[in-house]
Amino acid sequence: MNNIIIRPFIKEDRKSVRMISYETAFLGEDNKNIFADEEILADVLTNYFTDYEPDSCFVADDGGKVIGYIIGSKDIKRVRKIIIIKILPHLIVESIKRLLLFNKNDVRFLYHVLLSFLKGEFSTPDFSKDYPATLHINIKKDYRGKKIGKGLIEYYLSYIYRQGIRGVHLGAISEGAKNFFLNCGFSILYQSKHSYLRYILKQDTPYYVLGKLLCYNRNLEI
């Protein structure tokens, strides 16, 4: 990792984290052709973590430049509650203000997401009892393959382990992401497929829920 350090998130990192989240959102596809509104998408992906639980967020820093992040929560139930009560109303208001429904690409994407939702593709078992924590990780494309992701995972696991958290789970939408987490000691808890990007990719995308138990793993080395 050379001179790259992993450190706690600070408020000045918010813009960089949001930018990376938007740039890496759709499996390498051109974001503008899928969902053009950068601010709304970044809100969906990062708003809870950076604004409501920043102490559970960490960044990879290369000489003062944020080149990756891991943002998470110690309590997925709190995440869901805050999203419904505070973030979703905010997103609705912002979407109206920003004339989101006048962008045909954004409308098309939301239409396909709604179809997936109505088909039950976003319904997953509740793993919060044994795996109450969650995380979301991304690295800028030019910095991948340098073990930065593994370093971020180890840093985050050490953090929630010290908090006495029982376990952590997350969602992954590619084979590469699934294999990365398997190599980090996670296990597949659930798998299915999503169709909301089929109109772009010409095929369904895999969806995996992966988890890792912490406090009961006496051989954990992080």
Descriptive notes:
The chain has 222 residues and is an alpha+beta fold. The protein has one domain (5-213): Aminopeptidase. The protein is built from seven helices and seven strands, in the order E-H-H-E-E-H-H-E-H-E-H-E-H-E. It has a seven-stranded mixed sheet with strand order 1-2-3-4-5-7-6, with helices on both faces. Helix 1 packs across helix 2 (38-52) and helix 2 (38-52) runs antiparallel to helix 3. It is globular, with a radius of gyration of 17 Å. It starts with a strand and ends in a 9-residue tail after the last strand. It comes from Candidatus Sediminicultor quintus.
List keywords for this structure.
single chain; 222 residues; alpha+beta; Aminopeptidase; 7 helices; 41% helix; 22% strand; N-acetyltransferase domain-containing protein; Acyl_CoA_acyltransferase
Please specify the SSE layout and strand pairing.
Elements: E1 5-8, H1 14-23, H2 38-52, E2 57-62, E3 65-73, H3 76-97, H4 104-118, E4 133-139, H5 148-162, E5 167-172, H6 175-183, E6 187-194, H7 198-201, E7 205-213
Parallel strand pairs: 4-5
Antiparallel strand pairs: 1-2, 2-3, 3-4, 5-7, 6-7
Helix content: 40-55%
The name of the CATH topology is Aminopeptidase
Number of domains: 1
Strand content: 15-25%
**Helix count from the secondary structure assignment:** 7
Provide mean pLDDT, rounded: 90
Supply the CATH superfamily name.
Answer: Gcn5-related N-acetyltransferase (GNAT)
Order of helices and strands: EHHEEHHEHEHEHE
Placed side by side, the strands forming the largest sheet appear as: 1-2-3-4-5-7-6
Q: Termini, distance in Å?
A: 17 Å
Main β sheet profile: 7 strands, mixed
